[in-house]
């Protein structure tokens, strides 16, 4: 797969579809590296919820739900009231297929004013999870557009694109919205 991705990319670097062929090969590799780096960071600082959350994100994207849940539980034990930990709980549940539970948790987070301290894309990902959980195609479409817009306008940060790729694309791909997932991957690749 990696060799195919490099061949496709060598055809023309301005070809978005060619570059997109690289994503399936490199994304898992980058998530594996992210997970191993996060594991090492957690070994160096066992009380770091951030290292565990990086691992959770990578494991969720890789489809390793049991390991992601175990790391999530450790992060919750370290920082049980941390907003970022609570948001990651929604992400891991959604990425693992527990969409109804994730949507309910996301709605509970939205009920207060707490999300105002987080980047705007977090709310868009939570909206996407709610739309997918309720099987509301129009809501999913609106959420995908809100996630894509900053990428298309070259305003999205690297962190934002990493989370959209790891969380939103994972949720979309695992819930029969492959075209939307590919559209986002193409945008990220071209950015």
Mean pLDDT metric: 83
Largest sheet: none
The residue fraction in helices comes out at: over 70%
Structural class: mainly alpha
Contiguous runs where pLDDT drops below 50 for at least 5 residues = none
Multimeric state of these chains? single chain
Number of helices: 10
The count of DSSP E runs of length 2 or more, i.e. the number of strands, is: 0
Strand content: under 5%
Gyration radius over CA: 16 Å
* H/E topology pattern: HHHHHHHHHH
3D shape: globular
Distance between the termini: 23 Å
Give your account of this protein's structure.
The protein has helices spanning 2-11, 16-44, 49-61, 65-78, 83-95, 99-111, 120-133, 137-152, 158-173, 178-190. The protein starts with a helix and ends with a helix. With 191 residues, the protein is an all-alpha fold. Helix 2 packs antiparallel against helix 3 (49-61) and helix 8 (137-152) runs parallel beside helix 10. The mean pLDDT is 83. 79% of the residues lie in helices and 0% in strands.
Short description:
With about 190 residues, the protein is mainly alpha-helical. Helix content is about 80%, strand content about 0%.
